[in-house]
Specification:
Layout lengths: L1 H21 L31 E8 L2 E8 L12 E7 L6 E8 L13 E10 L4 E9 L9 E7 L7 E2 L5 E5 L2 E10 L8 E8 L4
Antiparallel strand pairs: 1-2, 2-3, 3-4, 5-6, 6-7, 7-8, 9-10, 10-11
Length: 207
């Protein structure tokens, strides 16, 4: 009887060890290869870290997809940009590799993307004429809340960055292959029947 119990205990130990090893993958562990989406669960990258790319957009180049999104931090500070735009790459849309921060916020208070600004919804396109990648994003100057309504533009020779930011601009338009910014100032009289509008339209540099 004692020998039978001992044998059962010995047989159970390998199973307990297996379960323990399966449950030990932490935030910084290696992520398993996936072939299904799991709604409501944490979506890890290749390092086992939760993907951090909010309000993002995707760009396909060849057989690779690139995901650009806002890198958020915890707490109230995460309501403004503390890090920048994160980039991930994937061949199958299930498994994502961390490519790092494509566009970093600056510690320079004179920079349009100084830490503490609002930088949202980044989208990247490829300019065939210049051979460069252009990132567009919604930009609000630091401390301005949502009163600035700027469009941010950054350019890189590599899809994963690093991207260099141009000075913030106003409303944007695209005509053919040329990109322009348009600044509109409107005056609404009390009767609201006539509106005075001043428009300025200049080309956006992409080199």
């Amino acid at each position: 009887m004692y020998k039978q119990l001992s044998m059962k205990r010995i047989a159970i130990y390998p199973l307990l060890l297996l379960f323990a090893l399966c449950g030990c993958r932490g935030k910084t562990g290696t992520s398993q290869v996936e072939n299904v989406f799991k709604p409501g669960e944490i979506w890890p990258d290749n390092n086992g870290v939760h993907i951090n790319a909010h309000g993002g957009g995707m760009l396909q180049q060849g057989d690779t997809y690139y995901w650009f999104g806002e890198h958020k931090t915890e707490g109230e500070g995460g309501n403004v940009a503390q890090v920048g735009v994160h980039c991930y790459s994937s061949k199958d849309l299930y498994n994502w590799k961390d490519e790092g921060i494509a566009l970093s916020v600056s510690d320079d208070e004179s920079s349009p993307i100084v830490k503490g600004c609002i930088l949202e919804r980044p989208k990247v396109i490829f300019n065939k004429k210049t051979g460069r990648y252009v990132m567009w994003f919604h930009l609000e100057p630091k401390g301005a809340g949502y009163t600035g309504a700027k469009s941010g533009v950054a350019v890189s020779e590599k899809v994963t960055g690093p991207y260099n930011c141009f000075p913030p601009i106003g409303r944007t338009l695209v005509f053919g292959r040329r990109m322009f910014w348009i600044s509109i100032k409107a005056r609404f009289p009390k009767n609201r029947r006539k509106v005075s509008v001043a428009v300025a339209c200049l080309p956006i540099p992409t080199r």
